Amino acid sequence: MRITVGSRTLTRDDVVAVARHDAEVVIDADALAAMTATRALIAGLAHDTVPHYGVSTGFGALATTHIPLEKRAELQRSLVRSHAASSGAEVEREVVRATMLLRLATLATSRTGARPVVAETYAAMLNAGITPIVGEYGSLGCSGDLAPLAHCALAAMGEGSVRNAAGDLVAAGSALAAVGIRPLELEEKEGLALINGTDGMLGMLCLALADLDLLVATADLAAALSVEGQLGTDAVFASDLQELRPHPGQATSAANLRAVLAGSAIVASHRTDDCTRVQDAYSLRCAPQVHGAVRDTMAHAALVASRELASAIDNPVVTLDGRVESNGNFHGAPVAFVLDFLAIAVADLASMSERRTDRFLDPARNAGLPPFLAHDPGVDSGHMIAQYTQAGIVSELKRLANPASVDSIPSSAMQEDHVSMGWSAGRKLRRAIDGLGRVVAIELLTAARGIDLRGIAPSPVTAAVVAALRAEVEGPGPDRYLAPEIERAVALTQSGALLAAARSVVPELV
């Protein structure tokens, strides 16, 4: 697969293709020509006696410091070296690659004034699988994701550490030499152009939305299996009832639930006069309303992501009419807000999933199933502690839902006195999404066990999902070592294998 940068705005799918699947990156020839033209403007300012921020002055609180002509190229190198100051655990390869691709995309807009060789070097590094080492801490989400982007720029200069295509930790200079990439020698403004952007937090947003596209559909699937396994009703998911509250996400989730439950002998067996249950519990009955709200939150986040993907962020920036102007477009608030909003939605989605699981385990609420779905209750504990694991994750997700973007801490001698903390919002969202996948997997594992114990034919979709799960995890029986079974269910959930099994019967599940 090949992704062209410069001739069009990147999409979220483009970011995922390069970050996760190593798609080839090429730069449009017209974009390189435009970069050459705007670079001439910056080159003219480099010898100007009038101070220009980022070209002939210091940075941040040092913006009033005049830099002599002979030190202006050194200024850019010093900027990158000093700002490559991250700390903590190594950031995931896909996040770093997304960050580099998005910075490359801004370079290719020709609004930064960088030379074509700067963009070409980033493209070459991505295509060679060279990934700079970036620590988890270091970005406040304002003036760009400074430290993460600086580590990327440092590697392009042939300094610092990287992982090569084989995943080995090597010196950047050696990695570049091994694939024939010449280290960058930065010129005026180019160091600044490489570190001023929301690329890290935007990359994490694009990856998160891709993960959630899969997990929210899988959560709909899990909810349907729980309704079926707990002898719930599908009547509440009728389209005319959903249309009384016309939220688009709710309509989609309700349609998914109807599709999964169609043809279920378990649900049909419950549609008799002998049934005394008037209403199902909220965690069953209100699944479309909660899951749908998550979908609508994702739609808003996707809109913000699309706008950010169409942006050219730098400071100063070269305007379309050739001015070089300072601005505040690097502030991460728009992205930070939706990253936090998604973390809230993820926490609530997982919370509802855990409640449905818990109902399976309680003989007072599970409509005739054994306590904890145990083979021999008392001797066996069944899924008792699997729910504990869910509960622990959900509790963690509630803490992660505390928004990072409401915090701000002043930096750079009060010049940068309000920051977005968007990078932090992205980091905690990634952890939250991992937790969500685990919670939904445990619900599916538990629902499948409950359905097996019913001994009544489930819907065709459910049968396909349970069969896919049973290929990796045994059915009900005496207690077994449970952790490996949970991990296999997590892998099937996070990879999309269980959703694919459902779609093999009903392709329209979304």
TrEMBL record:
Catalytic activity: L-histidine = trans-urocanate + NH4(+)
Main EC class the enzyme belongs to: lyase
GO molecular function, one term: histidine ammonia-lyase activity
EC number(s) given by UniProt: 4.3.1.3
UniProt pathway annotation: Amino-acid degradation; L-histidine degradation into L-glutamate; N-formimidoyl-L-glutamate from L-histidine: step 1/3
Record's keyword terms, sorted: Histidine metabolism, Lyase
One GO CC term, this protein: cytoplasm
GO biological process, one term: L-histidine catabolic process to glutamate and formamide
Localization terms from the record: Cytoplasm
InterPro entries membership: Aromatic_Lyase, Fumarase/histidase_N, HutH, L-Aspartase-like, Phe/His_NH3-lyase_AS
Record field: transmembrane: none
Membership in a protein family: Belongs to the PAL/histidase family.
Identification of the protein by name: Histidine ammonia-lyase
